[in-house]
Each structure stands twice: as C-alpha cells, then as structure tokens.
Amino acid sequence: MLTMYSTAWCGYCHRLKSQFDREGIGYVVVDIEQDLTAAEYVMSVNGGNQTVPTVRFPDGTALTNPSITQVKDRLTQITR
C-alpha cells in the first residue's frame, strides 16, 4: 500500500487521491501538518522542503508530486 503525505489544502494532493481512487490503487493519507514525524520524513526526501504530495512506496522509495502514470510505472517496477 502507498502512503501519500499531504495537507488539507493541497489541490495537487486532492487530484492525485481522486486518480488513485479511480485506478483502484490502495493508499493511506498522512497530513504533514498534523504529524511532525511525517513532516520530517517529507523534508528528508525533498531537500528540506515540505513538498506535497510525496508518495512513499512499499519498497521505501518516494516520488514527489508524481503523475498517476509515474506512480503506476513505479508500482509495476517494484512488483516484478
């Protein structure tokens, strides 16, 4: 399952969540404004920036502000 780091006000996050739902991709959402550990993780993979959406994959890799195509491609790569 994917973890999407997000904020309540992020339009890009809302769009990607809708795309996950449409594609049947399982995910959990963590609001970095409510979870300081999550905010620290996002900063650790984004050069100190709290850039969302940041998506963490089951293998521990992450993509920042990915398209649904990039997410699907990455999922295909890690399930081979």
From TrEMBL:
CDD domains: NrdH (cd02976). Pfam families: Glutaredoxin (PF00462). Signal peptide: none annotated. InterPro entries: GlrX_actino, Glutaredoxin, Grx-like_ET, Thioredoxin-like_sf, Thioredoxin_CS. The lineage of its organism: Bacteria, Bacillati, Actinomycetota, Actinomycetes, Micromonosporales. Residues 3-57 form the Glutaredoxin domain. This is Glutaredoxin-like protein. PROSITE patterns: GLUTAREDOXIN_2, THIOREDOXIN_1.
